[in-house]
Structures are given as C-alpha cells and as structure tokens.
Specification:
single chain; 242 residues; mainly alpha; 2 domains; two-stranded antiparallel ribbon; globular; F-box_dom; F-box domain-containing protein; F-box-like_dom_sf
Length: 242
C-alpha cells in the first residue's frame, strides 16, 4: 500500500512541474506581454513609486520597460507633483527617473530646513543670516519652492509652525530671484532695449500676504542714475515689508 502511494506521489510531482513550466512560458506570464501593454499597466495610476521600484528590481525585462521610454516615471512624477509639469517642454529629453530622484531629495532637504527653523527661531524673528542654509542648497530652486507650497497647502490647521516658516522661506526665495533678475537688468548697457517683468511679489502686510504686484522695469533707462534709483527703491520696499 505504501509503495502504491509513493508511486502516485512520484507521478504527481512531475505533472505539477510541467504545469508550472507551461504557465511560466505561456501568454499569461507578465514579462511575455508586449512592452506597450506593460507600460500601460504600470501607468494605470494604481501603483506608487515604491511599487515601480520593486517591479524594476524583479528582472531586466521589467526594468527596461520602466526606464526605456521614461513614460512610467513621467507618470509617477506627474501624479505626485502635478504643478511642476508646466515647466517641462514636450520636446525636451529628460531622464524622468533621475528627475524624480532630484525632486524627492529637494523635498527632503526643504522639510529638513523648515524643521530646523522651528527649532532655532521659535522665540524670535528670523535674522538675515538665518537664510544662509537655503542659499547653499543643491538642486533646482523650483523644486524647493514646490515643496514649500506643498507644506503651505497641508490640510486644515496641521503643522502651523512649519507653515509659518515655510511662508518666510518661500518669500525669501522669491525676493532673491527678483533681486538677481534686477541686478542682471541693471548690468545691461544703457542703449539695450527690452522689457523685463519679474515674478509677482507678495508683500506681507498685517500678518498676511498683500495682493501680488508684478515688478516691471523697462531697460531703456536714460542713465545709470535711473537704474540705481530702481534698485534703491526695490531694496527700500524689501526692508519696509520685513
């Protein structure tokens, strides 16, 4: 009786092995699907970046699908940071995976700095040299601004301290960008004619943000004195708004 059971078991094992091999090589296997179908599945919106990373680590075929065209990581980038997509041209080649990594790192750095502000300056205003860490950050400035906006848009009354310092840092970054554009404008020759319109300036008034006032300056000033007057007026406006 035992020998009969053993023989039947020996017959079942090869049968199961053959069935598993058939399934692995059949059309139902994921890696056997066309690349377009795999890409469509991975871009369906139900997978997170962590899921895509795990899929990429399973085999070379799936890793190539995730990285070859860049569409998979482009979709992950779009879902997580939709406001940044307007800064990319459809004709530009961008390594979407590397761009995702850079944006992720910038977000972590921005949150780290905001957290440090709440520890260092909880009992006083932020001094001028308090923003020195921000000037040394690596990566596109637009990524840091986007993360600060994400902090400001947190739901309800959560993380109010973080929102307070995120607003200060965001204001500082935008003011610095306007000042750099203005300095570049002042270095143009007197006969250079063009129009320079800076990013809208949000001046804090009464604890809140005033209406956005775009900075406009025409570069065909008649003299250096007029250009300097523009810069002095801008600096006075910054000091008054602090």
């Amino acid at each position: 009786m035992a020998s009969v059971a053993g023989d039947s078991a020996m017959e079942v094992v090869p049968a199961l092995a053959e069935e598993a091999a058939a399934e692995a090589t059949g059309p139902s296997c994921l890696v056997q699907l066309p690349g377009e179908v795999l890409e469509y599945i991975l871009c369906s919106g139900s997978l997170t970046a962590l899921d895509i990373g795990r899929v990429s680590s399973t085999c070379r075929r799936l890793r190539e699908v995730c990285q070859s065209s860049g569409q998979v990581w482009k979709e992950q980038f779009r879902v997580r940071w939709p406001s940044l997509m307007k800064h990319y041209s459809p004709t530009d080649y961008v390594n979407r995976l590397e761009e995702y990594k850079v944006r992720q790192k910038a977000g972590l750095e921005a949150r780290k700095i905001v957290a440090s502000f709440s520890k260092r300056f909880f009992s006083e205003h932020v001094p001028c040299n308090g923003f020195s860490d921000i000037e040394n950050l690596e990566g596109p400035e637009i990524f840091f601004e986007d993360e600060l906006v994400c902090i400001l848009n947190m739901e309800g009354r959560k993380a109010l301290t973080w929102k307070y310092y995120a607003k200060k840092i965001l204001y500082y970054l935008r003011q610095q960008k306007i000042l750099n554009n203005l300095k570049a404008f002042l270095q143009q020759p007197d006969d250079y004619e063009s129009y320079l319109e800076g990013r809208p300036v949000c001046l804090p008034v009464g604890g809140g943000f005033a209406a956005e006032q775009p900075l406009r300056a025409r570069s065909n000033c008649s003299s250096r004195r007029e250009k300097k007057a523009v810069l002095v007026g801008f600096r006075r406006g910054r000091q008054h708004s602090k």
